[in-house]
Specification:
single chain; 241 residues; alpha+beta; nine-stranded antiparallel beta sheet; two-stranded antiparallel ribbon; 13 strands; 23% helix; disordered N terminus
Length: 241
């Protein structure tokens, strides 16, 4: 034990370092890469597309081949109180117009977006040792786009969206199931009744102003290529890990 200013600290030996702490830290994995299997070559800005949407398309296609849910993304929002929050949502479409997801407009994220349209997205693809960060502003999809996606959802998912007042407190699970049952009785499957989209439910489009493509490197020497939109064009640069 080492004693410094009356505080006892345990010397914990790790490969390549000596750390003194009373805290039990989560150990690192093998010191080869932070995530997955480290690619053999670091990213080279000269090989990247001039258009970040095209670069994302290439990386997303690779992620689709490597994992089952490459469209899962973290959405970070921040309301007028300055307190951020984040959750996983599903990417449903992307194009040069932006990145589209669907949710309840009256949820916590929806309320924060109304207060502050600046958001961030993160895609995490561990099998490829890659991440993509996106920052931008968000707006509502057109009602026609929201209707189009709503109508292709499974009926049970549409019923659940009608029954749930997302992010609002509920007395218990039984109360939520009763609400679902009421919707189920209102729109019975046997009658093939149409289930209209509630006005509180629809899509958002994130218009990026920044992309960052990150790839794991050996010994935390990661690769980072960033695109910033300014004066009507995308500017690229390489960032240190």
């Amino acid at each position: 034990m080492l004693v410094s200013r009356g505080v006892s600290r345990l010397c914990v030996r790790r490969p390549h370092c000596l750390f003194m702490s009373t805290t039990s830290f989560i150990p690192n994995g093998p010191e080869t890469a932070a995530l997955g299997s480290s690619p053999s070559e670091p990213l080279d800005i000269r090989s990247f597309a001039a258009d970040p949407f095209e670069q994302f398309k290439q990386w997303f296609a690779a992620a689709q081949k490597a994992m089952t849910d490459p469209h899962s993304m973290t959405l970070a929002t921040c309301g007028s109180n300055g307190l951020p929050s984040a959750r996983i949502v599903l990417l449903r479409h992307f194009s040069p117009e932006g990145f589209t997801f669907f949710t309840c407009y009256e949820s916590q994220k929806g309320r924060q977006i109304e207060q502050n349209p600046n958001v961030a997205l993160v895609f995490h693809w561990p099998p490829l040792s890659r991440q993509v960060r996106i920052e931008g502003t968000v707006r509502h999809c057109s009602p026609a786009t929201s209707d189009e996606y709503w109508n292709c959802r499974p009926r049970e998912s549409r019923k659940a969206a009608c029954a749930s007042m997302q992010s609002e407190p509920v007395a218990d699970r039984a109360s939520l199931l009763r609400a679902f049952q009421e919707v189920d009785e209102l729109y019975p499957d046997s009658a093939g009744a149409d289930i209209p989209r509630p006005p509180r439910w629809g899509g958002y489009v994130v218009t990026p102003r920044m992309f960052e493509f990150w790839q794991s490197g050996n010994f935390r020497m990661h690769s980072r290529i960033q695109y910033q939109h300014s004066d009507g064009q995308w500017n690229m640069r390489t960032l240190q890990p």
